Please model this.
Amino acid sequence: MTASAPPGKPPLVRHLLETSLYVEDPARAQEFYQRLFGFPLAFADQRLSALALPGPAVLLLFRRDAFTKPGRTPGGLVPAHGGAGHLHLCFAIDAADLAVWQERLTTLGVPIESRVHWPRGSESLYFRDPDNHLLELATPGLWPDY
Amino acid sequence: MTASAPPGKPPLVRHLLETSLYVEDPARAQEFYQRLFGFPLAFADQRLSALALPGPAVLLLFRRDAFTKPGRTPGGLVPAHGGAGHLHLCFAIDAADLAVWQERLTTLGVPIESRVHWPRGSESLYFRDPDNHLLELATPGLWPDY
Model:
């Protein structure tokens, strides 16, 4: 990117449409997210499970290292991507549902790794998915707009 | 997670609140995202820049390896996380703005790595951020709910 002045105001970004996690076994990850959250399945094959999130948005569970070469589609080439590590995602929940979520995690055998109280009043529950990605459920009051 | 039946219907997830990228230099990444998209800054320090996305949501630009140990806060411990690789995010744009985005990327010196036409009519532009994360701008018609 050049250091020149930006070319005026950007057009509207509606919302984040896709976010990605890189997992050992997409079917295993899909099962976890569907059992815990009930997200509908948007697409699945051996290399990828895609779950429909409210928003609307899509959570992409990519098999690690299955997309590190560009992928041909009839409509063009999807460039390479791939990731490792224990990534972080957070989902917004209602404050009134916090205790229900806590109980649900416990009932499903998902250890709650931490609970954080934030300065503006939000409460967060932290836990792991089967690939040790760090998930958070947060009630309102965490960010200026939330 | 146990193999037992799920404990009834999950409470509502409102929306994805935070998604994360792991970058070499949060200030450099922040500058890229702000110049291209105009996302307001929600928080910044040496280890993290947080940008407010429409939704509302937050894009977290974490300095790679700065959060691989749990972080103490007055309200509790934030568990460890961290990532590597070239992760993928996609933002929803209006079909009418596709040409403007294409021109904006070019003007800002951001190479368009690929353009894909999807079966249901969506068009995607693919490009890279300064850490080679794979970004996509997609018009409606890509997913069942979008």
In short: Residues 26-37 of chain A form the longest helix (12 residues).
